[in-house]
Amino acid sequence: MIRLNDISKAFNQGQPNEFWAVRDVTLDIEDNRITVLRGPSGSGKTTLLSMIGCLSRPTSGRILLGERNLSGLPERFLTQIRRETFGFIFQRFNLIAGLTVLDNVMLPAYPLAPDHGALVQRATALLEQFGMGSKVASKVEWLSGGEAQRTAICRALLNDPQILIADEPTANLDTRLSQEFMTIIGELKAAGRTLILTSHDPVVSDAPCVDRVITLRDGQVQAD
């Protein structure tokens, strides 16, 4: 379980342009569930997601992963937790142009210095699982939107994370591809993973596999 206790996040604190993106949010996010953070642009959902995934720190409050308080850990420990616990699917996928599909998928494992042959085997197996086996040698700039997204999903799963985080994952996809994405998300939940998504897309929030929708506005929980 991920527990957020009175989380707030300020930007430019103490300056004339101080802005509180998240204010006093308290939530428990259960394991093996799909949770969607919904809200308009500027509602604080992406900021909250980044703190849950240890990409940024709260200004105040505590975030616990199980019984472990993440908020006060040194950066080197947060980096390790990010690699071992979380997989990330970004809005624009953040694939690196000029590299092949296979190379992009393998990137998150390089800091862990795994056996290269085993890494290639693992990445290739994931790409086969998601229907991308014929694209392993393709440059990512040649991919369609759906193919780029499946590549990003494979990359997020490479280190076998328990928790997947996706920020506006359907923002650049049409309705059919968005529905296909949510089918994959449901399958990942069935495989035992915890998924936390931000979205203002009804295809995401209304999907049958979603367990919980939390609506944010002005940095606070409006509905749950």
Quick description:
By secondary structure, the protein is α/β, with parallel strands linked by helices. 32% of the residues lie in helices and 26% in strands. The chain has seven helices and ten strands.
Order of helices and strands: EEEHEEHEHHHEHEHEE
CATH fold topology: Rossmann fold
Number of domains: 1
* Fraction in beta strands: 25-35%
CATH superfamily: P-loop containing nucleotide triphosphate hydrolases
Largest sheet: 6 strands, mixed
Topology:
Blueprint: E1 2-11, E2 19-29, E3 34-38, H1 45-52, E4 60-65, E5 68-69, H2 75-85, E6 86-89, H3 101-106, H4 116-129, H5 145-157, E7 163-167, H6 175-190, E8 194-198, H7 202-205, E9 212-217, E10 220-223
Parallel strand pairs: 3-8, 3-9, 6-7, 7-8
Antiparallel strand pairs: 1-2, 1-4, 4-5, 9-10
Task: Spell out the key features of this protein.
globular, four-stranded antiparallel beta sheet, 7 helices, single chain, Rossmann fold, alpha/beta, 224 residues
Report what the structure shows.
The chain is α/β, with parallel strands linked by helices. The chain has one domain: Rossmann fold (3-Layer(aba) Sandwich), CATH 3.40.50. It contains seven helices and ten strands. The two termini are 17 Å apart.
